[in-house]
Design a protein that fits this description.
mainly alpha, 4 helices, 0% strand
């Protein structure tokens, strides 16, 4: 069980690194906020081990709104993911 969780975290962080690496020097728009919010958990975990950011520093107001909406939903999904009823 713990091995499966660790493998899931590693795969998710690898996907975040490949598909959603945030460059602190770029300016980001609203659609980036959606993408960065979806990969919030992966980028947050990566920020502990690597020199990377989990939120852009130069962004629009719409980026910030969408970032927080999707960050909260991704955290709730990560906490409650797989908690549905299973019928084996």
């Amino acid at each position: 069980m713990i091995t499966r969780i660790l493998i899931s975290i590693i795969v998710y962080c690898l996907a975040g690194w490949l598909f959603c690496d945030i460059d602190p020097t770029n300016h980001y728009e609203w659609y980036h906020g959606i993408w960065h919010g979806l990969f919030f958990v992966a980028n947050f975990v990566r920020s502990f081990f690597m020199d990377c950011v989990y939120k852009a520093s130069d962004y629009t107001t719409a980026y910030n709104v969408f970032y927080w909406i999707f960050s909260i939903s991704s955290v709730l999904g990560a906490l409650g993911g797989g908690a549905g009823s299973r019928q084996d």
